[in-house]
C-alpha cells in the first residue's frame, strides 16, 4: 500500500489539480494505477466529492466505452 498523497502547498494547488486531471485521464488508456493517484490527489486537495464521482466514472468506464 502506498503512502498517502501529501497536500501540495497553496501556491501549487492549480498545478496539482492539472496534474491530477492528467493522471485521471490516463484511465482511458488503461493505466488505472496512475488514475488512482489522480483521485488520491483530488482527495488531498479537499475535493472528496469530486474524487468520489471520478472514481465512480472510472469504475463504469469499461461499460461506457464497450463496443457492441
Account of the 3D structure:
- The protein has 68 residues and is mainly alpha-helical.
- It has one domain.
- Helix content is 63%, strand content 0%.
- It contains three helices and no strands.
- It has helices at residues 13-25, 32-44, 48-64.
- It is elongated and about 45 Å long.
- The model has no long low-confidence stretch (mean pLDDT 89).
Mean pLDDT score = 89
Shape: elongated
Strand content: under 5%
Q: SSE string, helix = H, strand = E?
A: HHH
Helical residues, percent: 55-70%
Number of strands: 0
Radius of gyration: 13 Å
Category from helices, strands and their pairing: mainly alpha
Sheet with most strands: none
Treating each run of at least 4 consecutive H or I residues as one helix, how many helices? 3
- The N- and C-terminal alpha carbons lie at a distance of 36 Å
The tally of domains stands at 1
**Low-pLDDT sequence parts:** none
Amino acid at each position: 500500500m502506498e503512502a498517502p498523497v501529501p497536500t501540495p502547498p497553496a501556491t501549487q494547488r492549480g498545478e496539482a489539480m492539472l496534474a491530477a486531471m492528467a493522471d485521471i485521464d490516463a484511465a482511458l488508456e488503461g493505466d488505472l494505477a496512475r488514475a488512482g493517484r489522480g483521485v488520491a490527489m483530488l482527495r488531498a486537495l479537499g475535493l472528496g466529492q469530486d474524487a468520489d464521482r471520478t472514481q465512480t466514472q472510472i469504475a463504469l468506464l469499461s461499460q461506457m466505452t464497450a463496443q457492441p
